[in-house]
Each structure stands twice: as structure tokens, then as C-alpha cells.
Amino acid sequence: MKRLALFFAALIGMAGIAQAQSVATSIPAPAPSHHMSYRSGAMAQSCGHQVSITDEYGFKYDSMGDRLNVRGCVIPPPHTRPGAKAIQG
Prior knowledge:
Strand content: 5-15%
Radius of gyration: 28 Å
Largest sheet: 3 strands, antiparallel
Shape: elongated
Oligomer: single chain
Strand order of the largest sheet: 1-2-3
Structural class: mainly alpha
Helix content: 25-40%
Order of helices and strands: HHEEE
Distance between the termini: 61 Å
């Protein structure tokens, strides 16, 4: 009985390893895709702000800490008008 249990455990383990190897080798490596178009330096700096840092989420900031859009223009911070109801979470 003990031999039969060990045999089936080994059989299941070997089948799992064989399947894992065949799945890993059958998946082709993705081709590098360039989904972002490259722009010239003149177009990226049309607003006069240079990117000094990019954070981990891809947002760009100038040397003053202002957030920049794709063209290099400053994005104004959001603000709430006086008297407007604040969103409560």
C-alpha cells in the first residue's frame, strides 16, 4: 500500500514537472513593440519646460516640481471652488 501511494505521488509530480516545462517552452517570446511614437526634441519642449525627473508611474516633472504633459506644458493642480461640496469617501 505504501509503495502504491509513493508510486502515484511520484507519477503526479513527474507529470506536473513535464507539463510545466512544455508550457514554458511552448510560449513564444513577445516581440518588442514600440507603442509610443518618438517625437522630436523641438516638439516635446514647445512650452519651454524640460523634464528633469520621471516618477515610477511615468509622470514627468520639471525642476520646480510642476507636473508636465506630453508636450512639456505645466499641468495646473486640481482645485475646488469655494463653497463647492468636497467628495467624501
